[in-house]
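User: If only I could read backbone structure tokens as easily as an amino acid sequence. Underneath my words sits a plain record pairing an amino acid chain with its backbone structure tokens. This is the protein in question:
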Amino acid sequence: MTCLSNMSVESTTILEDGMQEVSFLKTPIMATYLLAWTIGDLDYIEAYTSGEFNGEQIPCRLYAPVGLADHGKYSLDLAVQSVEYFSRLFNIPYPLPKLDLVAVPDFSPGAMENWGLITFRLYALLLDEYGGNDRKREIAATVIHEISHQWFGNLVTMDWWSDLWLFEGFATYLAYIVVDDLFPDWDIWSEFVKRIQEVLKHDALRTSHPVEVGVTNPSDITQIFDEVSYMKGASVLRMLSAWLGQDQLLKGVRKFMLKYMWGNANTEDLWETLAEECKVDVPGFMRKWTRQTGYPVLSITELDESTILIRQNLFLSTGDVRDDEDTLIWPVPLSVATADNVTPRNIMLDSKEMILKLDTTKWYKFNMGQMGFYRVAYPPKSLRLLGQTLGSKDGQMLDAANRIGLLTDAAALVASGHTPTSNFLTLLKYFEDEDNYMVWAEISYRLQELFSVWLEQPAPITKALLGVQRRLFMKIVKRLGWVYPDNEDPTTANLRALAIRYAGRAGDPDIVAEARQRFWDFMGNRNPSAIHPDLRFPVFEIVLRTTTGVEEYEAIVDYYRETYVPGEKLVALSVLGYGHSTELIQNTLAFALSPEVRSQDILTVIATLRSSVRGRTELWNFMQRHWDTLHERHCDDIRFLDYFILISIGSFSSIDWYRKVQEFFASKDTSNYERILATCLEGVRMHIMWLERDREDVEQWLRVNGYLTAELDEELSRHRGQLEHEQQLLQQELLHQQQLQQQRQHRIPCPVNGGIDNVNGRHSALSHELSLAATGRSRSSSSADGFSSSETYYTAGSISSATSSCSSSPPRAYQDESCLHLHQQEQHSHQHHHHHHHHHHQQERKHQAQQVQRHHQRHKSQFEMTMQNVTERKILPAAATADTSRTLEGKMELLRVSGDGDL
């Protein structure tokens, strides 16, 4: 039995009853939350630092359950390198006499930086000889992050939890610096740009919080261990580094560490130290970024061929920024390159708008290197020029980070309604010859985001979207194949695995056949070389997605039971949710709660159920059945509850689902997870608005570009005809059930006819409510290359005109707006406004903006009424019984898609 703590063992005494008493050396002054013990049957491997910085070698040990320690050699080597790296970086020797890294079998956090005794989940620390490149990168980032805390966090500790972001954000940022130095061929900063997209999405919701957030009760502490504290914190520090220069920043950090070591410090202490060292107003610059929620979108308006207007507005994923919200101003460090001068020009935007001289007839790119934490909305013509540049010699000037930034900004502005989804799909055409793994990883993520929102659309539409994915990724598979050459560049190896996965997801028959052959060679013959480690997850997923999957599913479960390698166990658990039959989904849910799965891995098992309509429905039912039990069991593990809520409801995209979620949690005490619940609901609202706004736009693009073939188009027509017929029958059934219920409750005669016009069928009502949820869009036109543009953009509470305007460019309005009105009088008022706008669009912009603002104040109030109606169940016939409602919900669920809608 091994007993460990923060300091080295001082003595061990065997007691009379055979127990051992272990005493440790006294710790230096330290924060109590860093105190730790580990007791268990453990093996270890050991290495030593060079002794250059401490005057003597520091022993570094990696402990793991018996038989697994040798799988920690990669991590131990990283640990030794990191200790020496940070000693040099901070010019402060490692402060303790030893460093232990411990792999813990059942451990809810990914890792914890206890001083001198860092604890990890097994998969976050151990790597077998077949470990793939992705796993190596993940382990390196985690190990180096935790070791950086031995200085920044432990030697200097936060003053209060409000400063959590500083120490987690800095540890994250520093880890990327070290990884980039140790592994320059990993292109780690492109990964950083890709990774921050999740926090950019999160921070664009009203439910987000500032980086510096006040903490007044214990539940606040656990809820701020999120992407805002970690990745936004790291991002604004990287932005500060770009502004000051990395050498200057690190010089100031060394001074900060020396000043506050063995004590506490807060955010202001760091800003003041940096200001003193760098002789610039660091506090004035950074306070806006750490104390204000959200971030800006910079809307570019081309005034003429040599002049642009840049305007900053608060960016929201829902696109419905109110005037009272859009008052924030950030100091934005602009970095712009042009076709004539690829060396970035640095300018500070510290006001609402700015006029800038540059050639608008050629490409230009803002936020070079994606150093700034903001979005850029280009006019359609400029976006087209940037896209065309990617395939030219000039395109080589835009590195992977810049290409990712171009993609992600375009995708985010589509989801928020600033531009049509068709513009993003057209932009993807320019990336067909892309060869960078991180860029393709971002393309795959954005396509999956689109598919997720469109998941419940008719099968011909989802098949056509998969056709887009298949065409993009098969080109890479044909170039790279399945074979991994010796000494291949890690990023090329990762790209091969990514392309095979997403081409297989799209159902390419050659990929599916090859995956099945390799799967059974690997499983049946136990031939490890049949599937390269990087391809195990893709191959397992493909065979489960594209077959009935019973034998394959059982083989993967058996593999999980037999393998002792933590990373391989994790792969097996992660793919089970892709089994898409009802039987396999139920098996997965049951298996997740079985004793065979550690509590820390429950969510890993069920997370991928979100990939199919049937899986989402069963996962929601599972959540309702087991919520009280799981909440009681994990009430102290807020991370578990947060992620469980996220995977169970975060993918929904209809008012129907929105209402169900609100009703379910209405009777719950949500105090310790209210932030994530509100975030998920706002995300669902964004999905609703996006789908309703761009449903027809996407369908038209698919048709024009040949993905919605004549065969699929005919299938779509049949599907819609059948759906309309079934909806009529269900409306009649619903009315009949309502009338029967009224008879039972009130003992009155049931009318033979009448009332049908006054009792909407469930989905007729929902369809109307969804139309209310949509923001409007003006008439748009498509240019020859497929990019759409329109003369006027507007949305609730956010006013602008298009490329001819000197204002921001918020989301588009709907062309058919009459359906947005609840009453005939409002319809008449809107039609008059629309007619007036059409005939007087040449008037000055100020008058136009006033008209648009009044229009959208009406739309905003109507959307709020819609969501209130959903909450209060006004969209349902009042007399329908709960059983009847559930029965009809199930029937309507089956009508939404042909088959299971699996993507």
User: Anything to note?
Assistant: The domain at 157-294 is CATH 1.10.390.10 (Neutral Protease; domain 2). The first strand starts at residue 2 and ends at 5.
